[in-house]
Write the structure tokens for this entry.
Amino acid sequence: MSKTLQTVRMQRNLVFVSVALFIIKIIAWYITGSVAILTDALESIVNVVAGFIGLYSIILSAKPKDREHPYGHGKVEFISSAIEGILIAVAGIVIIFEAINNLWHPHALKKLDYGLILIAISAVINYIVGHLCVIKGKKENSPILIASGSHLKSDTYSSVGLLLGIGLLLITGYLWIDSIAALVFACIIIYTGYKIIRKSVSGIMDESDSEIIDEIVTVMNDNRNSDWIDVHNMRVIDYAGFYHIDCHLTVPFYLTVNQGHDILESMTDMLRIHYDDKVEFFIHIDGCVSTQCSLCSINPCPERNAAFIKSLEWTHENMVSNKKHRLE
């Protein structure tokens, strides 16, 4: 089964679970009358809507490049994640208004023990599915799977707090605890929505992703070739799991065009294998200069005018800088 089909299946399962948990929470609210449980159920509506949006986005993002979309359709996942984050934040704001209203106009609650059992069941299912979803999302570098999984996990933490609040209400009989639990729950939801929106906007705006560049630096250092004298001015654009890598590669200046191209191919082939061919390159080849002899380990070199001292370890900082490297 292809990775795309696996991702679609995971998102489809997430939608099914979201619908099932929404029904469970609505039943829990109906039998208890708790506004805190109602807010949990309202938040689950967002899970359902976001799940369907995410499923559509994953299917769309898997479409190949075309004339109108030369970099593919992967960016739609960032847009989908942003919509999910906005829906989550709006749900949190609605919950705050409901909780404040209930705080001023409390009403009697019933069968809270049954409600606790149902919410506990939903919390366990939420965490398991969310955890699996995040793992799959990181493996496939799918923003929508990571967003959906993170949302489900945060929903679990909120549900645990909700269980504690309802349990305390059962012990003390103070109805205001129901509203306070809902308010705390709403704040957690809004913060989760903010984090998802922030990450999505970063992807849409092609913000530099330090983790991706750090990973590339590690791969380059681990598979280093002596003909790769220097790599600098590196920029990486993440198209939701498909990377566009732009950089300058320094090679011996005396090589022919074909020889330089072969060296370039050795580097790009290595990265293609590492990223399962989900990568493309725009690489400019530079010829080396005399001040770089001390960090060049090519031996023999017909044009060397200084002894080799040591290779310069590539780091995030020196690979993104727009200048050829040399020993200080």
